[in-house]
Amino acid sequence: MSTDYSENKTDDSAKKKTSLLNWEEQMCKQIEDEWTKGQTYVSDLNDLFDDLYAMLRGERPTKNYDWQSNVVINKVFQVVWTSVPYICQKIFGATPVIGVKSYDKKGAWQREEILEFWNTMQASPEAKHTPYFLIVVMLTLRAILNGVGIMKKSWHQKLESEENTTQIAVPMEMDEEGNETRVEPHEVTENITTPIEDWPENTIINNRDIVFDWMLKPGQSIRHGRFVTHREMVDLASLYDAGIYMNLDKIDPNADTTSSELRQDHSDLNSRDGQDTPPGSDIYADVEIKERVGNVPVKMTKDGYVPVFDKEEIYGAEDVEMVNMIVTEAICGTGEKKYVLIRFEENPYGCINYVDTHLFFDPERFQSMGLVEPMKDLQTCVNDNINAMFDEIWQNLMPPVVVNKFALWDWDTMQYAPQQRWLVGGEPSKSIYFKEPSNITRDAWNKHSLLDSEIQLMTVTNSMQGMGREKTATTNVMNAQMTAGKLDFLVKMIETTGLIPSSQMDVKFAKMFAHPKTFKSILGEDFQFSDYEEVFKYIPAASSVKGENQKETEIQQDIQMIGLLTNMQNPNAAKVVNMFLANILRNRNSPKAAALLDEDFYEPQSDAGNMSMMQKMLGGQIPQNQEGLPMSGQEKSMRRLTYEPRSVY
Predict the structure, then answer these.
(1) For the region Disordered, what residue ranges are annotated (predicted)?
(2) Which SS3 state, helix, strand or coil, does residue 250 take?
């Protein structure tokens, strides 16, 4: 909508409306400008993601890479679906997924309890909730394919309101002494809310549908950037139901979105299934929106915050400040697009509510490659080696085929070994050099199998094997057979960059938005708030998860150690035995039984045991008889053992 500022309008309301529409349009243009620049900056990476996605589907991508053979495609599928189950089993093999420790034991226990509840919650079938396990699977898959898996954090809440009316006696008259002489009944209506749905909401973001600050450096998070913009296709009715959007009446519900920019960007991949153009609906209306979260230069007016776009004013005026805002625009139509600002308010979350999970770090850029791209060179080597083996076998079994290149041949009827068809225009003996064959066919197999075994060991460096010098250019490549050590490293990266920040946001948002009754239903008591959330250390629980074979090995080792300790004449041997017994019970998934063992066990037949027991009974104090009370024999013995003579020089 164009605005003519040359007209002298005297109506104040008209001026106000014109000015409002002007900054709304400018804000929409700012979002579109940042989106275009950000998408151009990562366009090559987006093309790579499309190729990797096609490979995961078992299809040959459109680009003609040497490494995109059918064998490589199968290996990609094998690597991805070997990594994802292992990582997710490790993460959810721990209870809780994320532990919390602090000197504030009660606060740590409460945070751990609510995180465990939400991370393992199974909501009712009709509720808008995606189990956290599925979120982690999708997040891990995105991170493996793209190097960075991005998740949007928000809060979902549905409250049920009920009016409760009670009668109270209101004093109407009082005597001189202040006693009530006449009262009348009065009804008081109280609005009581009960949470029906109240939990964190996690959304996995496609890398094509997000743009973040291009100034980010390797190792940083997108939460450290200046802005994040995310686009998605939503139902128009959901915007009305949310109750937080404005200008919805300016959105045309009949606008065609089948050819929107969002759907066009995904059409190449969706067209493989015949879903490049989604159907329209006679009763539903789809709307493409872009939501920008980040700093916006604004100034306060009587109508609220208004954005500022002039750099000289931004960095020169005293009344302009950077405020973390949520700005949302709706895009209507596909031909002549119409941009409508539907939300402009201060960010209720207080931060950029996104989590970016990294598997590796690139030394030069924020966006890393993921698992699939680094392994392509190794896969090329593996496949070329296998192909060379078969080529040599064929060359040994079949002689060269010499044909006249000037003649017409039906090549389908001719059998020949790979690279053993020779087109000759002159005398064959002067035109061909015949390769010397191997002695027997087995030589080719043995030779290439030895080379293949070397290739399969490339993930283990020579220094780790104790061989000294490392190989160059092959030490950090990704192998098709993922080693447990490398997968454990990926688990640690996912915990540090994804699971822990996600859990911290869950607790932070719960303190801001969750209903008190929600905490009561989970904890059985009121939630204990804390002024400083930093005192609670969120610890990666998944890294400590042991495999079943590892548990069994530790149990057998502990049993052998107990047999050795039982024959030792030492007063503290019983304590060590208890420690090993507790470890056995924990490995057998019986932590409560392990907690029943008294780690302060004492041996009553020894002086050390008597000292330990007496200190426990006396609360750590040394027995004394300064009040003239007689001491028992045990107290005297302990007093004698703990007494240290002092000398004065």
Answers:
(1) 255-282, 622-649
(2) helix
